[in-house]
Protein 1
Amino acid sequence: MSLPVVILKPGKEQSLKRFHPWVFSGAVKHVRGNIEEGDLVTVEDSHGNFLARGHYQIGSITVRVVSFSEETIDASFWHRKLEMALKLRQTLGLAGSDKTNAFRLVHGEGDGFPGLIIDMYDSTAVVQMHTVAMYRLREMLVQVLRDVLGDGLKAIYEKSEGTLPFKAGVEPVNGFIWGRNNGTIALENGLKFNVDWEKGQKTGFFVDQRDNRALLEKYSDGRSVLNMFCYTGGFSFYAMRGNARLVHSVDSSERAVELTRQNVQLNFPDDSRHEAFAMDAFKFMESSKEVYDLVILDPPAFAKHLKVLNNALQGYRRLNAKALEMIAPGGILFTFSCSQVVSKEAFRTMIFSAAARSGRKVRVLHQLSQPADHPVDIYHPEGEYLKGLVLFVE
């Protein structure tokens, strides 16, 4: 059966020839054949030459490429892709590790699965679809996951209610689509944490901060630590294992704070060094009289769209300036942005402005990013979303 064809305007094929996996709506001349959102399509240049195959969607990104070859896109195609994704995680020492069983198995375009996220928590896969095409493929993806992971997979939980396009005409319901697991205590670098994939943010835990949490542990010895936007307390229990003197965890969500307390209790039962606060970040920082030796700022994405970028940068600047005021001389600031539309350059410029406003002397110790199980396709730099700096504050 022939596929619908998306034909590009003259000269608009260059990005595809450089293997960038997106076709933007402004590059499209017209479409040949009946087409619906989520359909597999062929992309051709204005002369009818093959360029790629991908998934059609409504919006600024019209096609997300799955292959630059004229090959059949079927279950065996996705099976090969998933095998390669698993092999990468095995190479990284994650899949099969006895110290870490929480990791990202599929990272969208970075693994050749545009619009799909799969996080592993022990033997449970939590899948999140961001495109109609991937949602339509979910039954096939279940079988591919079962085939590739074998006995290492006990359950698959889908969490796509809040991630699919609002007007897509599909009605996903979060829940198990194969097997069942009533909850998991997962491991990361030997530390335990509860995973709440049903009510928690993202897929239940922010596995993208694994390496950065491990780095924080090395700086925590003897320090008083403030973990802002703590969510489920990942940075907090790493700081405690690093022999922090005290750790304060803050989040506006009562549920997040309760999960933080549970996770700290899992690893450090009845440890008086830790205290958690359910409170707005700015209100806490304004009212706190404590001077901290180490502060972590890991806020949710302030900007998800370019239209709100300037407002977001102002929010980040205000937050970081206040943190710099609170840090003791010789203190450390771990600061992050997970907003994809905030570039590394814009993030650094914002930090520069916050530092200048504080009047403190600030030095960059580390430049941080997402871990290797969140790979960035070299032809798709947009996949690098997490930015972080570790600063020494005199």
Protein 2
Amino acid sequence: MITTPLDRQAAPRTPAELAAAHGLTVSGARPSLSRYVRDLWGRRHFVTAFATARMAAQYSGARLGQLWHLVTPLLNAFVYFFVFGVVMKASHGVPDYLPFLLTGVFVWDFIGSSVNAGTRAIHGNLGLVRALHFPRASLPIAVVVQLFQQLLVTMGALLILLLAFGQTPTAAWLLAVPALLLMAVFCAGCALAMARIGAKTPDVSQLMPFVLRTWMYASGVMWSIDTMLGKDRFPHWVLLALKTNPAAVYIDLLRFALIDGFRAHNLPPHVWAVAAGWALLAGVGGFVWFWKAEEEYGRG
């Protein structure tokens, strides 16, 4: 058969050209960001089902079962109250210290658990990652959804405890809803970022408890940043850094919404903007950074 130069130019001459001519793509190749978002939205039922299954299985072998979601932060709050409130007298100058402490512990439990669990979201599910094709972001997001489900349960218990300690329900309690949503977006972004790091360097999960413990102490969970540091005892930038720390910001927003004594002191107007900024930075930044390594997860 005789071919002309024009025929040779039109016909695909390499496997790559032949695949492109028939619309074939590389298996596991990273999709565009817009397509990735659409694929992730299409897997939303998998995300919620996976999160619910993890939540049900977490304490399936314990006698108290799902009650441990509530018992654990309560036990932590009891220990912190004795050590910080009684021994170290961190309760001095803090109105409604028990509600103050309980709110901080419950909120921090969600933030710290989200970041810590994110480090194992990919590496701990390598069998699933290697066996099935789906947006890998589903896994760290499912972890945060699971923890957010737990948080909603514990927040219901927290409201009952606050009433028992004499807090008055007001319209300000509704501010807890946007605060929780902003915090959830922030934690999802952090979990995505940590999932990429943990997938590449699994040993980071061993380091996280020390990092998170330091972050917790710097976030005013058990003590008031203003009361303990004061405005003149440390440089202004130290106080500013502590108060704009994202965990401290979200904890302050929940305390302002739920606690009478905390609401007596007006929050600076920029706090909501800072909370939204952290959610946007972590949520969008963490998602895009995770997506950029999509084709690398499960290799090696």
Protein 3
Amino acid sequence: MKHHHEVIVVGAGISGIGAVIRLQRLGITDVLVLEKGDALGGTWRDNTYPGCACDVPSALYSYSFAPNGHWSRLFAGQREIRDYIERTAAAHAVHDRVLFGTELLRARWDEAEHRWALETSAGALTADCLITAAGPWNQPLIPDIPGLDGFTGEVFHSSRWNHDYDLTGKRVAVVGTGASAVQFVPEIAPHVRQLHLYQRTAQWVLPKPDTTLPAPVRSVLGSVPGALKALRRIEYGIMEALGVGFRNPWILRVVQQIGRIQLRAQVRDPQLREALTPDYTLGCKRLLMSNTYYPALTRPEVEVHAHAVRAVRGNVVIGADGQEREVDAIIFGTGFHILDMPIASRVFDGHGRSLGDHWKGSPQAYLGTTIAGFPNAFVLLGPALGTGHTSAFMILEAQLDYLAAAISAARAAGWTRVETRPEVQAAFNAEVQQALATTVYNAGGCRSYFLDVNGRNSFNWPWSTGRMRERLRNFDDAAYLTSAGMSS
């Protein structure tokens, strides 16, 4: 195995794959991808729970350089998305650059050599440039519930679904009511004996405008020049129009009436309906869409507990209200370590301080992409870039343009060290925080995963996607400390 590479990428999900392809287009072929799993796909490899699908229109949820006119649905399912990712990677020979089954243990900037020194499960490596593409939807978050370790039944997280365990006829507790639970609960409810849904916070659920795409439509999208691009533009325009509401919460308070109407139409029981009615503005938490979630909760075998789980004792789940329910299995739909990403404890600056030490619970980067104190490093789908209305691919490709421009500038100038100026990063994040104050993310009246342990919104981009693309289009070298050659 070659030990030094021009670029090392951590993670082979959509971000890592996109990075490899973008670098290849620049003529950079000395790239190695470290992937701890045994296959490509990232979140779309890991999440195989029943009903797993995208909540962004398929035509928009794809690389712009690899259009797919053959989606079977307006909102594609997990298997179809993973197949698309694998086909795209194969078409660009990405597999040839991936070291599977290899985990990054530690990466430290070597100031003397102007390179990154990595410790991995496959041995030591070095790189001129480090790209972290592990993503925020990587490490499952399982709450610390007293007695859970002593539970006598089956326990798993939605992103680590145990397909070998047959839920038929079982008594099941589902903890969490986020995006994954909204999708898998309707799928498993008809098969279980009892389903106890523990809902700490009610969610706004809008109708999902999903439909199958007939063969003639797919034929047009796949063969007529410009048809797929036109569909992408239409979907982008609709999503951006929705994005205006995230910056003007009064608009979403109007839109949420659609969710209220759906709830009233699908849940007749006034007590259950009250329990399922949120007390915050739509968009304050992640936007959810489903046509089947509310009907599933009205089934006779489903009981909604509008509170958290207090403890587990043997095979008994104890709710915050003190009620006890015997169950055979517990499924967590409790999301991920979004802002306390595990990789932050594995990447170190030249003085031995980790990324986590720098952040102190509040991730920050310049343009969500580069970090003061960490030269020659890029983070994809980083802090302050998340939105509630657009595709992760749109964000990623804006970052890849910036990354490509930065590396091209460094190559042309002969720089061996490129680091964000701390004052520039601080000014950018102050600007972000000021703009976030009036968005629905901060002013919507809820606490979401957008907020870090310090109560700061470290996740969201407060402006339009168009503004993001504009800000990331060109590399602004004045924002960086640069040098050529080895340091003394």
